[in-house]
């Protein structure tokens, strides 16, 4: 049994590929860095996004703070909704928590597969 199988032993939860989590952490981390400490962001290495992000970080600070807060609130709401859906579909506490955590980091791209999985389970039950 591989270590990956250990994390997927819950019946109604399956980990997304690792690169999805890495992208989510990089994107959310960059957003936080742009808001909290824009001087640490390596704009030269961000290609065509570098000048745009530099402009946003230094000339639209209030908008970036509001946007960052909105993104975190939206992700928290999506995670709460994922937990609610999973519990309503009679998933275990563990599965429901995994879906909520994954949805918090990956957002809508995790919520849609959960909704589709629940629909598939309901169709099988009919």
Automatic annotation (TrEMBL):
Coiled coil: none annotated. GO terms for cellular component: membrane. Keywords: Membrane, Transmembrane, Transmembrane helix. It is a multi-pass membrane protein. InterPro entries: TMEM254 (IPR028110). It is found in: Membrane. The keyword Transmembrane helix applies. Its main location: membrane. The keyword Transmembrane helix applies. It holds the Pfam family TMEM254. The chain crosses the membrane at residues 20-45, 66-85, 97-116. PANTHER family: TRANSMEMBRANE PROTEIN 254. This is Transmembrane protein 254. It comes from Amphimedon queenslandica.
């Amino acid at each position: 049994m591989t270590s990956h199988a250990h994390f997927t032993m819950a019946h109604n939860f399956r980990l997304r590929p690792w690169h999805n989590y890495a992208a989510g952490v990089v994107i959310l981390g960059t957003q936080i860095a742009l808001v909290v400490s824009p001087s640490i962001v390596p704009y030269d290495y961000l290609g065509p996004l570098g000048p745009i992000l530099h402009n946003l970080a230094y000339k639209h600070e209030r908008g970036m703070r509001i946007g960052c807060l909105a993104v975190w609130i939206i992700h928290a709401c999506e995670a709460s909704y994922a937990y609610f859906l999973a519990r309503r579909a009679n998933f275990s506490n563990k599965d429901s928590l995994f879906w909520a955590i994954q949805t918090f980091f990956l957002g809508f791209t995790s919520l849609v597969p959960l909704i589709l999985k629940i629909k598939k389970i309901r169709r099988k039950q009919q």
